[in-house]
């Protein structure tokens, strides 16, 4: 198996957020994405990082010690960055109009290994449990 780039894991984390948003809309079309506490979700992702001391304090969140960045941590890093952006956009944009499918397509184009996205379901089989944490 070839090694997957750290940036690809981070991008997959970003894609995961938009997939969660799509799934939330499907399950509850009346859900208001403007009423989500995205700052709290950023904090949740920070708590999931194995070595939080290597994380920068400011957006865009990055790992200061790259050698400590596991695929797991990079996925959470990508999620943190998207949740932070959504938090900042909340005050000026209607997040219910977010075109997550287009955002996902744009992110897939940024992957070094585009086949990684084709295996999304194999990598993120716990989408439903991720949604539970948003409630």
Structural features:
135 residues; disordered C terminus
Map the helices and strands.
Elements: H1 6-27, H2 38-48, H3 71-89, H4 100-110, H5 115-118, H6 120-123, H7 127-134
Tell me what you see in this structure.
There is one protein chain. With 135 residues, this protein is mainly alpha-helical. It has one domain (10-120). Helices cover 59% and strands 0% of the residues. It contains 7 helices and no strands. The protein has helices at residues 6-27, 38-48, 71-89, 100-110, 115-118, 120-123, 127-134. The longest helix has 22 residues, at 6-27. The protein is globular. The termini are far apart.
**Could you tell me the number of beta strands?**
0
Beta-strand residue percentage: under 5%
N-to-C terminal Cα separation, in Å? 37 Å
Helicity level: 55-70%
The biggest beta sheet reads: none
The general outline is: globular
Describe the structure concisely for a colleague.
This protein is an all-alpha fold. It has helices spanning 6-27, 38-48, 71-89, 100-110, 115-118, 120-123, 127-134.
